Amino acid sequence: MRHYIKCKDYYSLINIPTFTLVGEPDPPKKVEVTDGTKSSATVAWLKPLRDGGSKIDGYIVEYQEEGQTEKEWTQYSVVKDLSIVVMGLKEGKKYKFRVAARNIVGSSLPRETEGFFEVKEQLMAPKIIMAENITIKAGKKLRVESHIFGKPAPTFKWQKNDEDVMPSSRLAVHKSKGASVLIIKDVSRSDSGFYNLIAENSSGIASQKVHVVIMGPYLFLYLFYTIIILL
Length: 231
Hints:
Elements: E1 4-11, E2 15-22, E3 29-36, E4 41-46, E5 58-65, E6 74-79, E7 83-86, E8 94-102, E9 111-112, E10 117-118, E11 124-130, E12 133-137, E13 142-151, E14 155-160, E15 163-164, E16 171-176, E17 179-184, E18 193-201, E19 204-215
Parallel strand pairs: 12-19
Antiparallel strand pairs: 1-2, 3-4, 4-7, 5-6, 5-8, 8-9, 8-10, 11-13, 13-17, 14-15, 14-18, 16-17, 18-19
Keywords: Immunoglobulin domain, Membrane, Repeat, Transmembrane, Transmembrane helix
Domain Ig-like: 126-213
InterPro entries: FN3_dom (IPR003961), FN3_sf (IPR036116), Ig-like_dom (IPR007110), Ig-like_dom_sf (IPR036179), Ig-like_fold (IPR013783), Ig_I-set (IPR013098), Ig_sub (IPR003599)
């Protein structure tokens, strides 16, 4: 693994140099095929857990046709988005896909889809791509983003503790084609827990939970000592 070191000097009462170690990012999370036609496949993924200390500047997308050797991969594109439509595939053939994250240092190990995907016009049961854990400080705004796929387009809803979440002055659910965002303003510890997103269409049903942890405010105590010297 290659690394660079970023150095900065901060001048205050004491001149202390600081160092930031920069390396390749982690692989993307949850790479999945989310849609397909007779000549294409839509592949989507989540950002890596760690970017290696440097901003990710692209994702390398490759595919492999069933029957090729393990080392035979075809690079399709480098994109900045978290999904891509891979065109020009052969109808009836099976493919698997992999995605690697890239930063200024280099590329991560690739993350593959599970098994092979047959290229054909088809209905698809819902799939959800969403973070599994979110930690945020009390008083901040919680934003849980999800991507929802399926054919026909699924309907979906949010739950907490097996009860549907209800919009309020603090809580809102934004919906758009293939996506939903849960927003809670001014969060407190009572907002901690498991939130469940459920998606359903005529081909099936899917659900995924995200564990939200709200950290309480920290109290910092500063102790001042006064030394009186009697001469």
